[in-house]
Amino acid sequence: MDLEMNLNAPHSMGTTIIGVTYNGGVVLGADSRTSTGMYVANRASDKITQLTDNVYVCRSGSAADSQIVSDYVRYFLHQHTIQLGQSATSKVAANLIRLLSYNNKNMLETGLIVGGWDKYEGGKIYAIPLGGTLIEQPFAIGGSGSSYLYGFFDQAWKEGMTKDEAEQLVVKAVSLAIARDGASGGVVRTVIINSEGVTRNFYPGDKLQLWHEELEPQNSLLDLLNSSSPEPMNI
Amino acid sequence: MNFMASKQPENSLLGPESDSQRTLYPYVTGTSVVALKYKDGILMAADMGGSYGSTLRYKSVERMKPIGKHSLLGASGEISDFQEILRYLDELILYDNMWDDGNSLGPKEVHNYLTRVMYNRRNKFNPLWNSLVLGGVKNGQKYLGTVSMIGVNFEDNHVATGFGNHLARPILRQEWHENLSFENGVRLLEKCMRVLLYRDRSAVNKLQIAKITEDGVTISQPYSLKTYWEFSAFENPAQGAIGSW
C-alpha cells in the first residue's frame, strides 16, 4: 500500500464539467473533487466560478492555473463593464479566457467552459480546451470524467430542451461520470443562467440516482441484520 | 524540494522554458485539406473534425475560411494556431482596405505573407503548428499554394496536407487534368475524401467543399459521404483460414 502520499503533487482537478444551452439560457454543471495525487484535498469544491453577474466558468485541470486565469478575466471584465457601461457579453468573457490560455499555452494546464446569458445572443456555451482553441457549441463537456460522457451525450442530447430537462440531463451526466471516474466525486453543483438571473443548485452524493453495481447506502450492517429480510449474511 | 512539476524532462538540452513561448505539441488538431484547380477557379475540401489526441472531440470545426475578396484558406494542425492566423490575416486585410486605393491583396500576396510568418516562427523555434492551403483567383489568374509549419511553400495544380499527401495526391496525379468542370472537380475531391475517411483514423464523416472563383467564395453546407462495405471479401475474411486470419 502506498503510504507515502505525494502531498506536493500539483493540485489537479480531475473533474467532470459540463455546459449545456437550452431554449432561454444555459445550465453549467460540475462535480466537487480536488485531488493531490491520490488524496482528495477538497471533497466539496466549487468549480463553477463567477466572472460577471451573467457569465460563469467551469474550471478543470490544474486548480491553481484555472483559478488564476478566472481571477484575471474577472478583473478585466470588471474594467470592461465600467468602460462599456453595460454587462459584458459571454463572447467577450470567452475570448479573454482564450487570450490567456492561448498566449500562455506552454505554462498552463487548464480546460475551461464559459457559459452565460446576454441580451444580444441569449444563452451561449464556449469551450476552451488545452492549447487555447475557442469553440462555441450547443453543449460542452470537459475534465477527466468527460471521457465517459461522449457516448451518453451523443445519445441523450436534444436541441430545444426546457430548463428542467437541461438541468436533469446535466445532473445525470455528472453523476454517471462520478460513478466511473476516480478523479471526480463529491456533490453535483449546477448553475442556471437566463434572462431572469442566476440560480445555484446543490445535489449531494446521496440524493443522486444509483447506477450499476451501486447499493442503497445504509447507516450500518446492523440495520440490515435487524430488518425482516432473510439471511442477509449469505453471499 | 520539488514544488512545481515542470514539463521539462531532466535530460533535456532545451533552455529554461518558462520564459520562452514555444509550441511544444499540438492539442486540438484538424486533419487533411485537399484542393485542386478547376476551370473557373479552385475547389478545396476539408472535414469538420477537431481531434484531441486520439479522441474525435469536436465535429463541427470550420477549417476553411475566406480571406478578403480573392482568397480561401484551409488549415490542418493545431486549431488554436489557425484561429490566431485568421486574426493576423484579418488585420492584414483591414489595413489593405484602409488604403482605399482600389487595390486588394490577391492570393499570391496572402500566400507570401503566410510563408514569411510561418518561416519566421520556425526560425524562433516557436512554430504555428499548421499546414496551410491557400487558393484564389484574381483577374482571371488561378492560384493554389501551400505552406507548412516549417515554412516549406510551393504552388501546384493540386495540393494536400497531412494524410492527404499520401492518399489523395496519387489519385490527383492520375485523374487531374486542366479545365475540370465543377461537377468533375467535386467528384474527384469526394473520391479523395472518401479514401481519407476509410484510411485516416482522425477523419470524421462530415465535410465541406469550398469553391473560389472570380465572383467570390462559396463554402458548402456540412454533409456526409456514403461509404461502401459490401465486398464479399469483407463479409467473412477469416473463413477457411486456420486461426483468426
UniProtKB/TrEMBL annotation, chain A:
GO cellular component, one term: nucleus
Main location group: cytoplasm
Classification via Pfam families: Proteasome
Keywords: Cytoplasm, Hydrolase, Nucleus, Protease, Proteasome, Threonine protease, Zymogen
Top-level taxonomic group: Eukaryota
Catalytic activity: Cleavage of peptide bonds with very broad specificity
Coiled coil: none
GO BP terms, alphabetized: proteolysis involved in protein catabolic process
Keyword Transmembrane helix in record: no
Positions of the catalytic residues: T15 (nucleophile)
Compartment annotation: Cytoplasm; Nucleus
One GO MF term attached to the UniProt entry: threonine-type endopeptidase activity
Family: Belongs to the peptidase T1B family.
Main function: The proteasome is a multicatalytic proteinase complex which is characterized by its ability to cleave peptides with Arg, Phe, Tyr, Leu, and Glu adjacent to the leaving group at neutral or slightly basic pH. The proteasome has an ATP-dependent proteolytic activity.
Quaternary state and interactors: Component of the proteasome complex. Component of the 20S core complex of the 26S proteasome. The 26S proteasome is composed of a core protease (CP), known as the 20S proteasome, capped at one or both ends by the 19S regulatory particle (RP/PA700). The 20S proteasome core is composed of 28 subunits that are arranged in four stacked rings, resulting in a barrel-shaped structure. The two end rings are each formed by seven alpha subunits, and the two central rings are each formed by seven beta subunits. The catalytic chamber with the active sites is on the inside of the barrel.
Protein name: Proteasome subunit beta
Protein species of origin: Gossypium anomalum
Automatic annotation (TrEMBL), chain B:
Name used for this protein in its record: Proteasome subunit beta
Known partners and oligomeric status: Component of the 20S core complex of the 26S proteasome. The 26S proteasome is composed of a core protease (CP), known as the 20S proteasome, capped at one or both ends by the 19S regulatory particle (RP/PA700). The 20S proteasome core is composed of 28 subunits that are arranged in four stacked rings, resulting in a barrel-shaped structure. The two end rings are each formed by seven alpha subunits, and the two central rings are each formed by seven beta subunits. The catalytic chamber with the active sites is on the inside of the barrel.
Pfam family, one: Proteasome
InterPro entries from the UniProt entry: Ntn_hydrolases_N, Proteasome_alpha, Proteasome_beta4, Proteasome_bsu_CS, Proteasome_sua/b, Proteasome_suB-type
Keywords attached to this entry: Cytoplasm, Nucleus, Proteasome
GO biological process: proteolysis involved in protein catabolic process
Subcellular localization: Cytoplasm; Nucleus
Family membership noted in the UniProt record: Belongs to the peptidase T1B family.
Functional description taken from the UniProt entry: Non-catalytic component of the proteasome.
The keyword Zinc is annotated on this UniProt entry: no
Gene Ontology cellular component annotations, sorted alphabetically: cytoplasm; nucleus; proteasome core complex, beta-subunit complex
